[in-house]
Amino acid sequence: MTDAASLVAAGQVNAGDTAWMLAATALVLLMTPALGLFYAGLVRSKNTLNTFMMCVAALAVATVMWALVGYSLAFDEGNGFVGGLGHAFLQGVTFEPRDGTTIPHLLFMAFQATFCIVTVALVSGAVVERMRFAPFLVFAALWSVLVYAVLAHWAFGGGWLQEKGTLDFAGGIPVEMGSGFSALAAALVVGTRKDYGRQALLPHNAVYVLLGAGLLWFGWFGFNGGSGFSTGNSGVLAFTNTLLTPACTLVVWFALDLMRGRQVTAIGAATAIIVGCVGITPAGGFISPGWAMVLGAIAALPSYAIIVWRPRTRVDETLDVLAAHGVAGLTGILFIGFFAQLSWNGVSNSLVYGDAGQLGLQALAVLVTPAYAFVATFVILRVIGLVMPLRATEREESLGMDIVQHGEEAYVTGEGAILVTTDAGRGSEVAPVADSP
Amino acid sequence: MKLVIAIVRPDRANDVLEALYRAEVRGVSMSRVQGHGGELERVETYRGTTVKMGLAEKVRFEIAVSEEFVQPTIDALCEGARTGEVGDGKIFVVALERAVRIRTGETDHGAVTPVST
Fold first, then answer.
1. ipTM for this model
2. Staple partner for A154: which of A161, A225, A350, A423, CB 3.0–4.6 Å?
3. How many CB pairs under 8 A join A and B?
4. What is the pTM of this model?
5. Is residue B76 part of a domain?
């Protein structure tokens, strides 16, 4: 620890830390296509590609916006609300270590970019199967700057919550609560799918969902394990807790499934993995492995309840981003206030360990973050809606967003397809038809 | 006794099932088919290959009914499947020579009349 501290003080780049953060950045980037797979499995087959493409859109748009202004607004010195423009267009983001870390500033920026990307992708879960692709691209661009960068500044970039001492290890505030409560607003503005509440709208491929969840868990080791920006204790603790917490959430989810329907469900299990990973995200580097396991068990309860209750309402928050991310993130943020332990994290104690004030700071984040995310997202989508229609027509919704928005199908057979343009086919003979017997 | 065959849009299949249920028509088979009925061909592009999709996904219903159920079945199919645009599908009614319920060996009228449970 003293070695690391002296390196930070000396403003030097550490090779081991840099190596780990390079890998962690790639791990977090994988989470976005993994989320695409997870989401694609949860929708109907005619919307597979569109759903996946919303995550790909985040890879494109959020990365560009992050480099242009997002990173600066999140991590440059500014006021308590938002950062400055000193790092706009990546000015001054070089090989020198980022203040307070032993990794190059450039790498720090890339690592944080992957967080912004996956958060934008998460919000899409609220509006799949009916939102048009073009307004989603505009939304992704605006949201990544006006909501994500602002919340990231509050929590990590020297903003007012961080100044007050609110703890958020890897993104319970900007990533999880930010996406979850924005998703609720997005679902309300875009409106329900035309068949919602009338027909059963079922996941079309549970295997995608499980594989997506597995890849997300894999990527989450970089997400949480990298949020210490080093190979030091807090990163190791968060990495290990990322193994323990979701396992406990899974066990409790199995039990809840058994009590409710006498069977353990696969899509429930995939959801539990996400809820567990989300729960430990804010708390990973602050609580002991024992408390991390308790958090996994506790985090299952509110998210499970909301996932059961939400489809009975008129709110078509389609893929339950609020329950899996917003609420599980909120649980994790509050949990820090009860069980953070100075002997494990070297930063702060909590209510149970004699510092009740920390719980107050955590509660503050739980009040202001959802409010900002909800209101800002609501306004952004309403404004975009003035310029272009947000959703497809009923006819297009029936046909499916894959054909309407992308001119492709996920499970195309090719039977009856007539070539329009190809160089290979020009001048060649017609393929022989099999002789009939 | 008739066999009613209907080719409809896949996204109307649930509405058709609902309409049939309300018309008290029980005993339905459904399969996914591909067909072409004069609707505009969709153009799709996969990398450098652009194709016209001549065949569209459809759902085929097969319903064996006794005479008094023929018209209600047709009405329900039209009600459930119609959008008013080209591609809504067709209904064919063909004479049915025999029908046998495998479980009981009942034939004809008895075989196509639902069991009241």
1. 0.83
2. A161
3. 57
4. 0.92
5. yes
Residue type, A82: V
Q: Residues of chain A with pLDDT > 70: what percent?
A: 94
- d(CA A313, nearest CA chain B) in Å: 22
Residue B90 sits in a domain whose CATH number is 3.30.70.120
Give pLDDT tens digits for B3-54: 999 999 998 999 999 999 999 998 899 999 998 887 777 888 898 888 988 8
What Å distances lie between residue A430 and A28, A435, B44, B49, B55, CA to CA?
Answer: 48, 14, 21, 17, 20
Q: Are B52 and A412 inside 8 Å of each other by CB?
A: no
Domain that holds residue A30: 13-406
Q: Do B45 and A408 touch (CB under 8 A)?
A: yes
The answer to the question of residue A237 being in a domain is yes
Q: CA A305, CA A283: separation in Å to the nearest integer?
A: 22
Which of 185-204 (A) contact B at CB < 8 A? 195, 199
pLDDT at A437: 42
Per-residue b or e along B1-27, where b marks 16 or more CB atoms closer than 10 Å to that residue's CB: bbbbbbbbbbbbbebbbebbeebebeb
Q: Does B52 sit within 8 Å of A417, measured CB to CB?
A: yes
Contact between residue A326 and residue A179 where contact means Cβ atoms under 8 Å apart: yes
- What's the domain count of chain B? 1
Token couple for B36: 């072409």
> How many contiguous H segments (helices) and E segments (strands) does chain B have?
3, 6
Element containing residue B61 per DSSP (H, E): strand B56-65
**Do A421 and B46 make contact, defined as CB atoms within 8 angstroms?**
no
| Shortest CA gap A205–chain B (Å) | 18
* Residue A5 lies inside a defined structural domain of this protein: no
How many structural domains are present in chain A?
1
Bridge partners, B92 (sequence order): B5
CATH of the domain at A126: 1.10.3430.10
Q: Is B47 on the interface with A (CB under 8 A)?
A: no
Instruction: Report the distance separating Cα A160 and Cα A369, nearest Å.
Output: 12
